[in-house]
Amino acid sequence: MPKDRIIADDFLIFTPDDVDLARSPLRGMGLDAPTVVLGAFNPGMTRLANGNLLLMVRVAEALADPDGRAMRWADGRVHLDAWPADRVDMSDPRILKLKDEAWTPLALTSLSWLLPVELSPDGSGVAAVHYDRAIAPSASYQSYGIEDARISHVGGRYWMTTCSVSAERLCTVLYSSPDARDWRREGIVLDHQNKDMLVFEGQIAGKFWAQTRPLGETWFAYPPDSEWRAGPAIQLASSPDMIHWKPCDHPGLRPHAATVSTARMGGGAPPILIDDGWLSLWHGVEPGGDVGIYRTYWSILDRDEPWKVVRTDHDALIEPAPDLTAAFQDSKYLDHVVFSTGIVDRGDHYLVASGEADLVCRMTRIPKDRFA
């Protein structure tokens, strides 16, 4: 298939302008300072029993005038922490960097929470926005917010992994639901700064499987002639019950030496089972600018041994599309970032949900023969 036929259709479905901050769950937690939406992005996606699609949108709600203050949740309330100007670097208005400490810890001028947005079955329109079912911080390990949901439907139940951020730790927190409407927080399932946990939509040999992405400060080199490059990689883990996870002894998806586009990489959408194996969408990052260029790539993994790659492609599946966010130019902090977080089967194509520019929710229709 010609490589220029990558994207069949591409559009925005939810933006910061669509968020009603008067209905924010933080307003019931003592927040009375003026706020803005920095982004409504990186949506987890699944199909509901009624046929509609559900997005769990990350809403980054920020102080309109940070003035050296950070937002933090504790004991059921939102607190504003004022930091002395000589202690912080605020060159990025979203982040306060404590420049007088050895590890340069961060504080945030925003708190992220999850907003359920129900779409039509084809994903082309918003059917309802469920503010009454929003998920806000509710534990000490979520004091700086809840980020980047991924949703899988396995064993008759919906499972949602999220990244929770706090001074205590940066960890993966699991939620479960019988219907993807009423969610129960199951607690921390992965620690050690594991930001991208994606549960396979189906079991392998009676076990749940997931892709993970542990971070670290030390990476050991492969041999000079290796096809792999050292750095963050997508690993695997299995579980008998979705709560207790054992890392896989085999390596998962690793940065390839043949391309600079995977200098960093991490999980994207939860793997789904197709005829040839597990279709896995993931992100690769090419160095450049402040955060690099984020693109979406794909691999097909063996259905019984998911550490084995059946087929993959060094060409990007989804590229950043700055033209899609041209109307938000005045409020953009990033460009050249697409971060895919959900996929559903739509018959002759797949519908992929992504965050674009850490700002908006983007939908992309991908023809199934793209993976042939």
TrEMBL record:
<dbReference type="InterPro" id="IPR023296">
    <property type="entry name" value="Glyco_hydro_beta-prop_sf"/>
</dbReference>
<dbReference type="InterPro" id="IPR007184">
    <property type="entry name" value="Mannoside_phosphorylase"/>
</dbReference>
<protein>
    <submittedName>
        <fullName>GH43/DUF377 family glycosyl hydrolase</fullName>
    </submittedName>
</protein>
<keyword id="KW-0378">Hydrolase</keyword>
<dbReference type="Pfam" id="PF04041">
    <property type="entry name" value="Glyco_hydro_130"/>
</dbReference>
<comment type="similarity">
    <text>Belongs to the glycosyl hydrolase 130 family.</text>
</comment>
<keyword id="KW-0328">Glycosyltransferase</keyword>
<keyword id="KW-0808">Transferase</keyword>
<dbReference type="GO" id="GO:0016787">
    <property type="term" value="F:hydrolase activity"/>
</dbReference>
